[in-house]
Amino acid sequence: MLIEERHRAILEMLGQAGRITTGEIQKRFCISYDSVKRDLRILEEKGLLQRIHGGAIMVRVGDQNAQKKEGKNAPRSQEDRHLSIAMRAIAEIASQEVVYITAENIGYLMARNMPDDRIFTVVTNSAEVAGELRTKGNITVILAGGEVGSNGSFCDGFSPEILECLHFDKCFITSACISPEFGLSVEGKNQLELRNTVIRNSRKVYGLYPAEKVGMGAEVRICGVEKLDVLITDEEAPGEELKEFEDVGVEVIVSRGEIEKQEGAIWR
C-alpha cells in the first residue's frame, strides 16, 4: 500500500469513529509505532486531524480557524520545502566535479536553478533534467539513455550499464521513503539497480528527502542509511529521527528556507 493510500484509509477510519488509536493503526496496516507517529504528524500538519495521547481525533472547526489565523506557526508548503532542499543541494556542487542528479522532481528543481558561476558535469537518466541543462554553457550533460518511461526517465537495463562506466564526485538521489531502520526504499523494483549503481560509483552520496518521506518505509529496500554521507531535509522533519541518522554517521543538513529566497529562483 502506498503511503498516500494509507493516509486516506486512516482518515476514513477516523471519520467513522471520531477518534483512532495508534494501536488500531499498527494492527490495521502492520506498521511500526514510529511509522504511525509519522503518519499522524503529517496528517496533523495538513490540518486533517488532531493528535492526542495514544492516537488522534477529528479536527474541530474552531481548531482549523485558529490554525489559519496563526500564520507565523503555519508550516511552509510542500513546494517551498522541496525547492529549499534543491537549492541547498546545488550549493554543495563545486567546479570541475562530475555529479549525478536524480530524475525525481527535486532533481528537476535543481536543474531549473543551476548556477552559471561554476563549470561541472551533470549525469542524469532524466530527459527532462537533461533538457533543462542543455543550454547551460558551463555544464556538460551526460544522459544515461535507454527505453524512456512515461515520466521522461530511462530505467531499463541500458541505463545502469552506462552509469556503471562512470564515476561521480557526488550524487544527489531520493526515493519514496527513508528511515533509520529500513534505509532507502521505493514502491516496486523500478530503478532499483540504477540507484544502487549510482550509489556504488559515487565518492559522496547525498539523500534529498523532504519531511514527508522521513521515518517511512516503502515496499522495496534500496540500501541501508549507512550508504548515505549526507541527508538534506527540511525543518518539518522529526528531530528524533534525524538524531538516529546522525548516530550512524550520516551528516544531516536541515534547509530552513533561506536559500530558496535568493533572487531569480525558479519554483516550477
How would you describe this structure to a colleague?
- This protein is an alpha/beta fold.
- Helices cover 37% and strands 21% of the residues.
- The protein has 10 helices and 13 strands.
- It has helices spanning 3-17, 22-29, 33-45, 61-69, 78-90, 105-112, 127-133, 158-164, 192-200, 239-247, and strands at residues 19-21, 50-52, 55-57, 98-101, 120-124, 139-143, 168-173, 177-179, 183-186, 202-208, 220-223, 230-234, 251-255.
- It has a 7-stranded parallel sheet with strand order 6-5-4-7-10-12-13, sandwiched between helices. A 3-stranded antiparallel sheet has the order 1-3-2.
- Helix 5 packs across helix 6 and helix 6 runs parallel beside helix 7 (127-133).
- The longest helix has 15 residues, at 3-17.
- It starts with a helix and ends in a 13-residue tail after the last strand.
* Count of helical regions: 10
Tally of strands: 13
The rounded Rg comes to 20 Å
Order of helices and strands: HEHHEEHHEHEHEHEEEHEEEHE
Q: End-to-end distance, in Å?
A: 29 Å
* Main pleated sheet: 7 strands, parallel
Classify the secondary structure makeup into a structural class. Answer: alpha/beta
User: Mean of residue pLDDT?
Assistant: 85
How big a fraction of the residues is strand? Answer: 15-25%
Report low-confidence residues grouped into runs of 5 or more: 68-72
